[in-house]
Amino acid sequence: MFFAIKWHYDQGKKDKDKEKEKRAVLRAAGQVAVVFVLALAGLGVFAFALLRTLGNDLPLP
């Protein structure tokens, strides 16, 4: 009886650990996506400013 109760207790504990791990992975993936988008936007602004400085005519649509 003890081992049956312990097994069920451990299974419940394992599910909580999986949930924490899943949240951590999703948070990390979100942070990577945000950093990528910000880097892409920064690169675009930098390229636009550089080309404008070098004399290329880049009218905004």
Describe the structure.
- With 61 residues, the chain is mainly α.
- Helices cover 85% and strands 0% of the residues.
- The chain is built from 1 helix and no strands.
- It has one helix spanning 2-53.
- The mean pLDDT is 86.
What's this, in brief?
By secondary structure, the protein is mainly α.
What proportion of the residues form beta strands (DSSP E)? under 5%
Secondary structure tally: strands: 0
Largest beta-sheet characterization = none
**End-to-end Cα distance:** 74 Å
Helix and strand composition category: mainly alpha
Radius of gyration based on Cα positions: 25 Å
Return the average pLDDT rounded to an integer.
86
What's the topology here?
Layout: H1 2-53
Can you give keywords for this protein?
about 60 residues, mainly alpha, rod-shaped
